[in-house]
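From the pipeline queue, job 12 of 40. The input is one protein chain; the requested action is below.

Action: predict structure.
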Amino acid sequence: MTTFLQLHLLTAYPPSNPNRDDQGRPKQANVGGAPRLRLSSQSIKRALRLSEPFRQGLAGHMGQRTKLMVKVILDHLTVGGMEAAQARARAEEIAKVFGKIEPQDKKRPDAIQGTTLAFISPEERAFALELADRALAGEALPADKELAKNVLRTADGAVDIAMFGRMLADNPDFNRDAAVQVAHAITTHRAQAEDDYFTAVDDLKTRADDTGGAHLGEHGFGSGVYYLYACVNCDLLVENLGGDRELAVRGLRSLVRAIATATPSGKQNSHAHRPRAGYLRAEIGSAAPRDLTGAFFAPVGGADLFRASVEALERTAADIDRAYGPAAEATEVMDVPKGQGTLAAVEDFAASALERQDA
């Protein structure tokens, strides 16, 4: 049976704007008829991938999302001494396995990029440059299908690709289903964006000039206790990593530490928001996963929104277990204000998910 690791977090954010909408204001959602602040799944996953726990814990096993692989190959060929027009043709021939190449822009003839934001593993990058070296040596490149097999040999060494998946429309055989699902985070209580009206003063102005500001501006911000849910299909994670269980364990440990400490970085210089999860509930089991967002469809209230959120979450988990049977075979909780548990203990617990698989 499939083993799932489920993570439920409550994090108190100060006044901040970590994830902006198209107007530069905090993203929002209406849940249970009440306005909430929201952090998108995409912004959270990017924050996880860029976090120190991922960079340090998974060094050498991280992919890159880019449209610019064709430029990387072109620069490699140019430095290697290939004539410009030929180098461009060869670079496009190799890089098209990651997606179509944008037509050449007459206004910017030197610009070159793909149409697809492709998720590329370190091995695939190395294989693409290996083919470039063969082209520099005068060797003919393989035909299209063989070319794809040569470059897109594997993404098995990239943990972030294994976790968050990828889609290559032109080469679907090399797609990856995501082993980690991450929900949009929402505030557990009513919350709306506020407006900050600000001015900036010219340091060289004197009172003889005028006393007004040199710049006027406005930006949105908000604060609240956010609930975040993530679910890991441990079997699929190991499969996506080519059966490398040791690397999968490193991935689970890095994920737990990152999800508790990383945050989208929008307007961080203006607000210095660097919250850490105050509550983290980790569950391991083979039952069908379930999130606990329903705990907050009726927004919590009272003087202590954080404690009210914890109580609502735990009550809902108990209610679901009573009605459906246990959702997990084991649970580990870190409740910071209560002095219960540690992040290190949750990491160890998450790593044990693969040991339970073997049992």
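Job complete. The first strand starts at residue 4 and ends at 16.
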